[in-house]
Known about the structure:
The strands form eight sheets. Strands 16-17-18-13-19-20 form a six-stranded mixed beta sheet, with helices on both faces. A four-stranded antiparallel beta sheet has the order 12-11-14-15, with helices on one face. Strands 1-2 form a two-stranded antiparallel sheet. It is an alpha+beta fold. Helix 2 packs across helix 4 (279-286). The two termini are 30 Å apart. The chain has 17 helices and 22 strands. Among the domains are: 1-142 and 693-711, no CATH class; 298-557, 3-Layer(aba) Sandwich (Rossmann fold), CATH 3.40.50.300. It is elongated, with a radius of gyration of 43 Å. The model is unreliable at 54-61, 250-291, 596-628 and 684-711 (pLDDT under 50). It is a multi-pass membrane protein. Its main location: membrane.
Amino acid sequence: MTAMLCGQAEIELYIESLANASSRSNPRISPNCNQNSWALGCQPGWACMVSGTEPSDGPSAELVPQRAESCRPCCPGFFCPRGLTCMMPCPLGAYCPLGTLNDTTGLCDPYFYQITPGKSTACGAADSWADIVTTNDIFCPPGHYCPSTTQKYNCSSGHYCRKGSTDEKKCFWKNTCKDNAIKENLTFYGIILIAILGFVLLLVYNCSGLFISFQVKMSSRSRKKAAKRADKSAAARERWKLAKELILRHEVPTEGFGHAYNQADTDRAMKTNNDKLTFSGVVSLATEIRPRRPTLEVAFRGLTLSIGKKKLLQCVTGKLSPGRVTAIMGPSGAGKTTFLNAVLGKTSGYKKDGVVLINGLPGLMQSYKKIIGFVPQDDIVHGNLTVEENLWFSSCCRLSKGMSRSHKVRILERVIESLGLKEIRNSLVGTVEKRGISGGQRKRVNVGIEMVMEPSLLILDEPTTGLDSASSQLLLRALRHEALEGVNVCAVVHQPSYTLFNMFDDFVLLARGGLIAYHGPIYEVETYFAGLGIKVPDRENPPDYFIDILEGIVKTKMRGNVTPKHLPLLWMLHNGYEVPDDLQKDLENIDTIRELYTVRSISSEQSSEEQSENTDSVHRNLSQSNELLERKTPGVFAQYGYYLGRVAKQRLREATQQAVDYLILCIAGICIGTIARVRDDSFGVASYGYTIMAVCNEKGVIIVIDLMEIL
C-alpha cells in the first residue's frame, strides 16, 4: 500500500491546485495522466502503484514517479484526487469510507464523483480534501463522532458532537442533550444569565449610594482612630518633655509644698491644653517633633538650552534652596516653562550646556522622581471623586508602602487643614456636566495631590492663575508651611498682588531670550534696581513694573546709557558670571561697569557668608536625601488594586449611566444572537478546526500540511 502513497512532487501539485481557487474542483493532473495515457488510477477515488520503469516525459518527470500498474480503488481512510494516480490519508475528524454506487444517480455515495461508464471501475474512497465549504462531505457529519477516518458512531444522550468531532463532548446538563445532539441547548441558561445580570444591575443602581455612604462612614471612623492615637502620642510626648525639664534643672527643688503646687499646676495646665486641643491641633502637635524631611537643593551654572540655533535659556546661573518659596516671573516667551523643564530634568530633545548640581553634586533629576512633585497648570483631579478621595488615592500610590495607615491619615489631615479644604472634604470635585467645588478650590486640590506625597521639591506651574487674592494668599500660605518642613518650592506666577509678592522668599525675573535679569531675595529686588536708576513709583506693583521695563512698555531713565536689554548683562556683571560671546559687544556701550563691580564685590561678600552658612546644611542633608531615594512605593499589583478601587467607586457614582450602557449591550447581544445563524462551516474562518494533515511518503518522511497557511 505504501507504493500507492503520494510523493512530495505529487503533494505539491495538489497543494498548488488548492491554492488556486478556480481549480479546487478540478485539481491539476500529473504527468501520468494526459491525452496519450489515461490509466484507471487517473479516475477519482482510484490510485496506482509506482512502476519500475523510467519516468515518463513531462515538465515534472524528474520528480513525479510513473504510475500505471496495479491500479485499484482508493483504500478506506484515504482520498485519491482525480488525475493524480496516488492517495493521501484523510485528516482526523474526516470520515472516508469506501463509496457505494448509487444506481439511480450513478454517483458514489457519500461522495459526489461519478465513475466512467463502459470501464471496469468501482467506487473507491474519497476523491478530494480541502476546506469545509468545498469538501463538506468528507468530514464527520454532525451528531456523530469519528475516532478514526473509517469509523462513525452516533452521539449518545447527554453529549453533543459538532461536525468533524473525534469524540463526544459532555453537556453541562444531561437533559439539554438528546441522542445525536449537534450542540448543547443553552437557551434556558442564557435567559437565567440575563435575568441575573439584570438583577445585579438593578441592585447596583439602587444600592450604590448606600455603599458609598458606608465607605465614607468607615473612612471617618478610621480618621477618628488615628486622631485618638495622635492624641495619646502627643500627651505622652508632653509628659516626657516635662519630666526631661525637671531632670535637667540645675537646682533640685525640695520635696515640700512648693513642688506639690508646681506639679499640680503643671498637670492642670496640661489637662486644660489637652481638653482644648482640636483634631487639627493634635495633628500639628503630632508632627511638631517629626524629623524634617530630607532637603533637595538644585543649583545650575551656565545652563543653556537650545533647539537648533534658537536659544531658549542662556547662561542661567543660580540655585533653588530648600525651605524657601521661589517665584518665577517674566514676560511671555521668556522661557519660564523651559526653565521648569530644566529644573525637572526634562531636557530630552534640547541641546544642553552647563551644569546642574543636586545638593552640591552632579546628578540626574530622574533619580529623585519619587520625591519631586509637579503641579501642572491644567486640572489633574477626578471630577467624580470627592476631595478627600482624590488626596487619599494619591497618598496611597506615592507614599512609602511601609508607612502605616494612621500615618497616612495624619498626613492627609495636615494637608486638608493647611489648604483650607476641611469644609469641602466630602464634596465631589465636579465635572463639566455636573457642577462641584469652585475653581479656586480645585486649584488647591491640585496642589494637595502633590503635597500628600511629601515631596522634597515642589514645582508649580501658575498655581494662582484664575484665583482671587484671598484664595491665592491661602494657597501661598500653605506653600510656606511646606517650606518650613524643608521643601524646596518653586512656582511660576503671573501678576501677583503686592501682598502676595512679598509672601515669596526668592524672586527669579527672566528676560526674553532666556536670560536672568534678577535672581535673589524678594527684599533686595527694589534696592538692586534702584541702584540702576529704576525706582518703582508709588502705588505701582514692583513685579509688574519690572516686567513692563523689560518689555519696553514703560520708559525710564537709567544710570549712564543702560537700556532695558542690558539688564541681564548687568546682572551677570553684578555677580561676576561669565558673559557669553553674543553679549560681549554690549560691554563697550555701558559706562557703569566699574560701579557695578563695586556693588558686586559687596554682594559677593554677603553671598559668600550665606554660602558658608548653607554649605554645612547641604552636606548634612545629602545623606538624608540618599536615604529618601530608597523610598519604596507600592508595587504594580498594589497600585492596580488602588486603581480598581478608584474605578469601582467612580462607576458606582455613575450608576444610571452604567445601567443604561449595560442594558443596551444586553439588548444588542440578544438581537444579534437571535438573528445570526451560526454553523460549523460559517463560524469564524471556514474550516478553522480541520486544516492539519500528515502524509508519510515512500521514504518514510512525514510531511505536515497546514491548509490555513495555503489559503
